[in-house]
């Protein structure tokens, strides 16, 4: 198995993306620590993992609270013996569906400040343990790319670009300590869209229409790609992006 005896923390592990990644990590042998602000979604994912023979634990956590993040990372490392993988896929509170000229500045900036804050805090907490181990992987997730006409994403693209800048800086600083930092780039995952989202089918169609393969990545494919990126099979991959956009995002 790709991640046998690895310990992984997934912030936002109760969501669609986080849950898919957690299940894939567990299938590949990792012990998964799910963290988020709502216990029931976390426990649902954990129950699924345990039912299939995997190891999963849940914890209530606000990933924008530095002390809480540090305490949780310390507990994971003390309990499991190491912290090998960290991935943050919490929601950023973005407002979509409005052109920028009709937005409040607070709504535009919220996902940017949240993304930067939480990525900084969770990456810092993980890196402090990984530096002692001389190994580890920090994964980011985003859809950084050119905005599409008619698809109003508010501050989301700006947030993704900020996270990419942080990923490059982290990779440079942490590389000498044996720590890899990789981003999974997606042009959107239709399965992850909220069922009650206004215009959900139109958004899903726009995601598919932007691809070269005429289909978007599935949640299972996201999980599989994350498991590969976190594994020793990708041991030479850092300061890099793994493009899982089905061609929607051209490599730069």
Question: SSE layout and pairings?
Answer:
Blueprint lengths: L6 E5 L4 H12 L3 E6 L2 H13 L3 E6 L5 H15 L4 E4 L16 H29 L2 E7 L13 H19 L4 E7 L14 H10 L9 H12 L9 E4 L9
Parallel strand pairs: 1-2, 1-4, 2-3, 4-5, 5-6, 6-7
Helix pairs in contact: 1-2, 1-7, 3-4, 4-5
Write structural notes for this entry.
- The chain is of the alpha/beta class and 252 residues long.
- The chain has one domain (7-243): Rossmann fold (3-Layer(aba) Sandwich).
- The protein is 44% helix and 15% strand.
- The protein contains seven helices and seven strands; from the N terminus they run βαβαβαβαβαβααβ.
- The protein has helices at 16-27, 39-51, 66-80, 105-133, 156-174, 200-209, 219-230, and strands at residues 7-11, 31-36, 55-60, 85-88, 136-142, 179-185, 240-243.
- It has a seven-stranded parallel β-sheet, with helices on both faces.
- The chain starts with 6 loop residues before the first strand and ends in a 9-residue tail after the last strand.
- The model has no long low-confidence stretch (mean pLDDT 92).
- This is SDR family oxidoreductase.
- Keywords: Oxidoreductase.
- Belongs to the short-chain dehydrogenases/reductases (SDR) family.
- Pfam families: adh_short_C2.
- It comes from Arthrobacter sunyaminii.
């Amino acid at each position: 198995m790709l991640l046998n005896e690895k310990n992984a923390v997934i912030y936002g592990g109760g969501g669609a993306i986080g849950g898919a990644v957690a299940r894939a990590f567990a299938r590949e042998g990792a012990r998964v620590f799910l963290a988020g602000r709502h216990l029931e979604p976390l426990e649902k994912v954990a129950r699924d993992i345990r039912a299939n023979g995997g190891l999963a634990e849940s914890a209530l956590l606000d990933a924008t609270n530095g002390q809480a993040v540090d305490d949780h990372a310390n507990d994971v490392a003390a309990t499991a013996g190491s912290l090998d993988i960290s991935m943050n896929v919490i929601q950023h509170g973005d407002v979509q569906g409005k052109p920028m000229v009709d937005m409040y500045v607070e709504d535009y900036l919220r996902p940017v400040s949240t993304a930067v804050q939480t990525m900084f805090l969770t990456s810092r907490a993980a890196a402090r343990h990984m530096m002692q181990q001389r190994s580890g992987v920090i994964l980011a997730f985003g859809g950084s790319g050119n905005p599409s006409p008619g698809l109003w994403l508010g501050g989301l693209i700006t947030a993704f670009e900020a996270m990419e800048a942080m990923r490059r800086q982290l990779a440079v600083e942490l590389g000498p300590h044996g720590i890899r930092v990789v981003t999974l780039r997606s042009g959107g995952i239709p399965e992850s869209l909220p069922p009650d989202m206004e215009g959900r089918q139109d958004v899903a169609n726009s995601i598919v229409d932007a691809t070269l393969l005429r289909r978007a990545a599935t949640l299972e494919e996201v999980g599989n790609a994350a498991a590969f990126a976190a594994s020793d099979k990708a041991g030479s991959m850092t300061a890099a992006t793994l493009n899982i956009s089905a061609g929607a995002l051209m490599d730069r």
